[in-house]
């Protein structure tokens, strides 16, 4: 997922200039939030062109300021081809890898003033790098509404720990984040997740209080003897029924668990279809480690 820098030097004569850095774009979805005091330490308004960065790209797990703070990103709306430049000022714990949460002004500028969409597919790269080949502009088909199921048993509530500024529309958006790559003999695995009220940090690493954590068991990605290597690593998970995706951090592991075991707490609600107080059970998830991590 995270491509290596490519630097091409053209040495033909005196005064020859190195070619610009070329990097593949990140892919994800755009959502919007109410701008205010950000994790980078500054305060912004909705008219500022700013973004909140997804947690894996943010790069810290202890609440510290990211090295990406105040960096600029060049964002393209894949539906209409609109492009804008924005500044990183905040963290979005609930955003999937490659996704960005935007100020209302930036979201409107990229989407021709249409705020009703709530979400649209994007590609983006860091400013100063040459732009990758643009993705073709196309309208993503809208999913058919899922009929409300009859509630047959009491479902425990789970309150998301994401930023209070996160709007409600983000929990119902369909993510177009890039498919994760994983280490080991497989790249992804499929499982039916368990829903826990809390996933304790048995890995004993310093995690940000906003981090969404998961517990994992042995799978084709890591054997039971190697599960400890996953502590603190980021994985991308996608609900195979509705396409919603989320980036979460491994905070616990169970070597004795059954194959492909995965337990989620607050992130379960974000990935599910929610009808009032009813959280639809997740039947199937695909997940894998986000590439570029040392596992």
From TrEMBL:
Q: Does the keyword Ribosomal protein apply?
A: no
Keyword Signal appears in the UniProt entry: yes
Record keywords: Signal
Q: Which Gene3D superfamilies match?
A: RlpA-like domain (2.40.40.10)
Renumbered to this chain, the signal peptide range is 1-18
Q: Where is the composition biased (Basic and acidic residues)?
A: 139-154
Residue ranges annotated as coiled coil are none
Region labeled Disordered — which residues? 130-193
Q: Which InterPro entries match?
A: Expansin_CellWall, RlpA-like_sf
Ranges of biased composition (kind: Low complexity) = 168-188
Q: Note the PANTHER family from the entry.
A: PTHR31836, RLPA-LIKE PROTEIN DOUBLE-PSI BETA-BARREL DOMAIN-CONTAINING PROTEIN (PTHR31836:SF25)
Would you tell me the protein name for this molecule? Answer: Barwin domain-containing protein
